[in-house]
Design a protein that fits this description.
It is built from 5 helices and 5 strands; from the N terminus they run H-E-E-H-E-H-E-H-E-H. By secondary structure, it is α/β, with parallel strands linked by helices. Helix 2 (69-72) links the parallel strand 2 and strand 3. The longest helix is centred in the first third of the chain and has 16 residues, at 22-37. The radius of gyration is 22 Å and the shape is globular.
Length: 177
């Protein structure tokens, strides 16, 4: 987390730019404070190093539990929570235990685990071994309370189209008049 450079997102050497507004910074801080007050441990996140009022320094929280806001709320901030698990089935159950479902991330090189996890995770987008999964050709969007439909990519245009289906049968037996 400490290796990430926070600053003007228009500069190529910057990893993380500002949040959208001050309320987003306050929400991120509240999520972190809630987790710490309920037993999580914070790694990184020295907010005194933030380069401006709309910036939030990256935070890693360990020991996260389902009773914490970081588990339950979409934060759209550089706040990552980690919790231990024993089996793939357990982690699938924990990951799906949310009303949200925008994006999930898997880190493994075991192709069987990758397919099992990708299929089982209830998220609109799943990325394997990468955090950079969006871009113009990607159908961006989530499931559950994280959205309906997609924007971008070939499927993004579907929201603007009306599909009309035609089924023509037994045309050879109809006389032309």
């Amino acid at each position: 987390m400490a290796a990430l450079t926070v600053g003007n997102g228009l500069q190529s050497e910057i990893d993380l730019g500002p949040l959208i507004h001050r309320r987003a910074v306050e929400k991120a801080a509240a999520i972190v404070d809630d987790a710490i007050s309920k037993g999580a441990t914070m790694i990184g996140g020295d907010q005194s190093q933030a380069p401006g009022e709309n910036f939030f320094m990256p935070v890693l929280l360990t020991g996260v539990t389902p009773h914490m806001k970081v588990w339950r709320e979409e934060n759209f901030a550089p706040v990552a929570g980690i919790t231990a698990y024993s089996t793939d089935d357990e982690v699938i159950e924990m990951a799906n235990d949310t009303e949200y479902g925008l994006a999930a991330y898997i880190y493994t090189h075991d192709i069987r685990r990758i397919w099992k996890l990708m299929r089982a995770l209830e998220y609109g987008m799943v990325s394997v071994n990468s955090v950079k999964m969006t871009g113009p050709p990607v159908p961006f969007g989530g499931v559950k309370q994280s959205g309906l439909g997609r924007e971008g990519g070939a499927t993004g245009i579907d929201e603007y189209l009306e599909t009309k289906y035609y089924c023509l049968g037994a045309l050879g037996s109809v006389s032309g008049s």
